[in-house]
Every structure is written in structure tokens, then in C-alpha cells.
Amino acid sequence: MLRTHTCGELRIDNVGEEVILTGWVQRLRDKGGMLWIDLRDRYGITQLSFEEGLTPEALLNQARELGREFVIRVVGKVIERESKNDKIPTGAIELKVTKLEVLNAAKLPPFMIEDETDGGDDLRMKYRYLDLRRNPVRRNLELRHRVMRETRNYLDGLYFIEVETPVLIKSTPEGARDFVVPSRMNPGEFYALPQSPQTFKQLLMVSGFDKYYQIVKCFRDEDLRADRQPEFTQIDCELSFVTQEDILNTFEGLIHHLFQKVKGVNLPKMPRMTYADAMRLYGSDKPDTRFGMQFVELNSLVKNKGFKVFDDAELIVGINATGAASYTRKQLDELTDFVKRPQIGATGLVYARVNEDGSVKSSVDKFYAPEDLAEWAAAFNAKPGDLLLVLAGGKDKTRKALNELRLEMGTRLGLRDKDTFSALWVVDFPLLEWDEEMGRFHAMHHPFTSPKPEDLELIDDRPSDIRANAYDMVINGVEVGGGSIRIHDRRLQEQMFRLLGFSNDEAKAQFGFLMEAFEYGAPPHGGIAFGFDRLCSIFGGSDSIRDYIAFPKNNSGRDVMIDAPSPISDAQLDELHIKMRNITAPEKK
Ligand code: ASP
Asked: Where is the Aminoacyl-transfer RNA synthetases class-II family profile domain (predicted)?
């Protein structure tokens, strides 16, 4: 190698050794008589020193001509530093340089390659390769690497086998839009990029692979948010001859292992919560259980007292924001505005403060006597100093709105600490979801999920009440993984497709291969997939999965560094048998 050591390696024990280092010039300090350079590589920083009088003139001049981010190679002797820097592991020594070679000059970088940089988001994305030189960004990728390695360690230990599945496939209906790729050799036909390897991993079970996993890229053409990227990575798993219980235990084990190895955190056993309870108590199928503030339903307490809003409501439900009675009028108005925003859609907010003397003062005192309000407080188990926040309206909408308000209050009251971890399983999801717009059912998880056998009798009369053998793992309010026990019987799978509005021909055209495979000895099987980038962001304590992806896309789905997507030549289009309509390229964002 061009070097004998890395820039993070030398210690006081190395004093006296002659060594060779390579790296980037992070900083240069010229004090006239002395000149220091911080030399950086992936492993750390080592200080180089040059001294007038002792360092040959030519070498000193050579050093003075270096600029930030020049790539250099130096030969020198390790000496003890006079003023030590206890903030870095190499801070006790420096290198007295005897020879310097510039391996490559560098233009001045467009932003500071420091932990705190002056570069804005767009600039750092355009020069992502420079951003990746910065410690915090590099550390995120190191974390990702450790999560990946430990995932493989754990699953290998359980005899899982990693099998790669194809990337050019036919669309699988996971609910999102497919990215498609035109086929040159098959005019007018397209591949789709996998939204997940779902059908392939099921076929691998038919093949007898028994325990499969894959850390795999998946593609979904959806609108982007902080926790979504058009291409993302899953830990995708499937097992044969297992019950739901086996799967929950195996993968709770995986997450325990990762927390232990990557974070040094021992997570407690994960509680299980039914979907119905999650909706009733938190208004969400991914409740943030780092804090309580569970929903309390008030229908039986508050109706028929002359308050029309409550009388007309399907559901009156609230939360106890403990200790928030001191909220000012202005703060309460802010909360009212918050719930009335169109995205949340509540019509108003009722509040009640529990005073120090135990009396309750509400925004609807006109309708409710002090004894009534005392009953409210009791229902919430509220103490002096607490603030009750109540919403009313249609059941689903009101629960959804109160979920948002609960999360907002959790944030405001500092209850959502990123170093606290609360994980749980949400189980017993409904099999189907009614799509108002399309006027038909969708599979809530995907069409291969099996119904609970005991609910099958509801199939004709109350299909929306059928529960599935489907489960999600939720950590701190983020759905990190989800899966199900699958259907492995052709007839049941056909019945499911019918329920989802597929004609026999459509089902056959799309999934004939899977249903045929079910006729050749398909074992009972089930699986799960974890969002790998999301897991990393939870371990790293960031809300954005982008921070854990080496080369992510921006909010418009663009890679601004390589400038993709981009137009292709007419010749390429011709070859692909594609005629472009008059499209004006959108302005680049
Ligand atoms: N394929 C599913 C998904 O991507 C996961 C599973 O059911 O295993 O959500």
C-alpha cells in the first residue's frame, strides 16, 4: 500500500517510528515559524507538523502551497505533541514530515468538509461524493453497514439462505405504482421493477427453500416524503411450516439482536396489540407507544346535555395531556388551528383544564355542570394540572385527527425522545379495506395474505370484518416491518382474487404462475419484510431515511448529481419502439 498506517491509528506508543500516511488536507495552519496540517482519511485525523529552521526550506514551501482537500502522501517521524488534543484519538502525537508528495490537487470544495458544514441541502446532494467525506454522513453509512452485517449474522445463524430474485419482473400488486422498463426484444411489452419480491419468495417456498431472506432493493413509484424513496431496501424473509407465532418470535429476535449489537440497547419483550385496539386507543395502526395519552371515549358521558356538536357525533373521544393545564389561550388557539387544518379536518377542539383545587374549567361550561366535568376528569384519570383535549365527529375521521393531536402534544411535551425505544407488534389486521373511490375492496396487506380460518364464514355477508393473519412491527410510531401468513391453497387464492374484484381470466393472466405452483405441493408458509433504511434511521436517530442512503433521490425523485432521470436519444427510443408524444421536459427541481 501507499501508506503504512491510517490517519486514525497512531498513538503515543508509536513515537519514534518512521511512517507513511495518505489522505486529504482538511486544514492548514501557518503560524510563520510553525505550520500544521490536519490530514484526514476515513479513519480519523492526524496532525502533520513542519518547523522553520528544522524542515528543509523546499519542503516547507511545498507544504505552504497545499490547498484544502489536496490528496497527499507524507513520510515522517511520529513525535509526542507539546499541546495535546484529547478530543481525537491521535491527539497525543503528530507527524514530523520529512517528505511530501502531492497525489492529486483539488479544487476548492463548494462547501466546508467539516462536521458542521455551510453547504445547503441541494448543494450537498449535487456533490454527494464530497458530502460523504464528512464524518456524520460517513458514520451513517457505517451504521448501515453494521445493521446489514448483523442482519446477515443473525439470519445465517438460523439457517436462512439468501437468494437473489430478479429485478426485471412483471408487476405485483402491492398497492403502489410500478416503475416499468420497456423491452427492446419484445416490442410493446414492459417489465416492471419489483415493489417487493413477494411472489418469488413464495415460489421459493414451493421449491423447498424453507427459510429465505434477501436484503433487496425494491421500487415504488409513489410521491416522496422524508421516509420514502423511489428505491429503497428491504430485509425480505419467508419461511415454511411455521405459525404466525413462530414468525413473530423469530423476527422479534432479529430486532433484539440488532438493537443489542448496533446500539447496545436491550429491548424488552414486545407487547402485542390488536389492530382494533390500536385504532381505539391511539387512532393509528402504528401507535407511538413511547408515551401513554391513550384515547378515552366519552359518548356515554357527554351526550344529551344540550351540546349539539356532541349529540350529533358518532364518536366523542379525547386525550389527557398531563401537566398541560397551564397552556395559555394562545397555545390552545394554536392547537385548535392545528386540528382544523384541512389535512387533519376536525371542526373544532373542546378542552377542559383541571385546576389546582380539582375543579374543572372547560370551553363548553355552558352545557356541562361542574359535576359533569368532574366525571370527565375521572374518566381520564386526570389530576390537577392536566389538560383534557376532546374531538367529536365521525368515528374514523375523529380518531385519525386525535392521533395527529396526540402526536403533536407528545412532541410539545417532550415525550418523543429519539433515544427511547418502544417497539410492539400490531396483529389481527383486517383482510380487506373498502376503497370508496373505486367502489371495491383492496387487500389491506396484499392479495396473498390468508384470512383467519375462524373468520372465513364472514366471507359472503361481512367481508370487511374478516381478520387476516397479518402483523406489523412498530417502533416509536414507525412501521418498520410487516408480513403475513400466506394462502397456499389454489382454491382459497382464487376466492380471494374474486373478492378483490378480479375476474377469473384477470387473476389467471396476472397470477396464473403462482396458482399453478400451489398445485405442485406448496407448503404452508408466511413471512415478513422490514424497511431497512427506516430501521437504520431509527438506530441513527434521524427522521430522514435519506441520511442512510449513499446516493439518495430528492423530493422530485431526481438524482441531481448524475442528473437522472434524463431524456434518451431518438435512436434509443426507436429501438425500444417508443413514440414520444409532445412532452415538454419539466423544469428541473
Ligand atoms: N411483501 C410485503 C411488503 O413488501 C411483505 C411481506 O408480506 O412479506 O410489504
From this structure: 146-552
- Ligand 1 contact via 172 beta carbon (within 6 Å): no
Residue 55 CB less than 6 A away from ligand 1: no
Binding-site annotation: residue ranges for L-aspartate: 174, 220, 445, 486
- Residue 181 CA, ligand 1 centroid: distance in Å: 22
| Residue 299: per-residue pLDDT | 97
Q: What span, in angstroms and rounded, lies between the C-alpha atoms of 545 and 540?
A: 10
Atom of ligand 1 nearest to the CA of 238: 8
Residues of the chain predicted below pLDDT 70: 172-174, 585-589
Q: Please give the full DSSP string across 12-77, using - where no structure is assigned.
A: GGGTT-EEEEEEEEEEEEE-SSEEEEEEEETTEEEEEEEEBTTB-HHHHHHHHT--TT-EEEEEEE
* Domains recognised in the chain with CATH numbers: 12-104 (2.40.50.140), 136-165+195-268+530-574 (3.30.930.10), 291-412 (3.30.1360.30), 423-526 (3.30.930.10)
Residue nearest to atom 4 of ligand 1 (CA): 196
pLDDT at 559: 95
Q: What distance in angstroms lies between residue 237's CA and the mean position of ligand 1's atoms?
A: 9
User: What is the distance between the alpha carbons of residues 386 and 30, in angstroms, rounded to a whole number?
Assistant: 61
Angle at which helices 329-340 and 395-412 pack, to 10 degrees? Answer: 140
- Report residue 176 as a C-alpha cell: 403502489
Ligand 1 contact, 49 CB (< 6 A): no
Atom of ligand 1 nearest to the CA of 527: 8
Q: At what angle do helices 395-412 and 275-282 cross, to 10 degrees?
A: 70
Greatest CA separation found in the chain?
Answer: 95
Distance of alpha carbon 289 from alpha carbon 284, whole angstroms: 11
284-318 pLDDT tens trace: 999 999 999 999 999 999 999 999 999 999 999 99
527 lines ligand 1 (CB under 6 A): yes
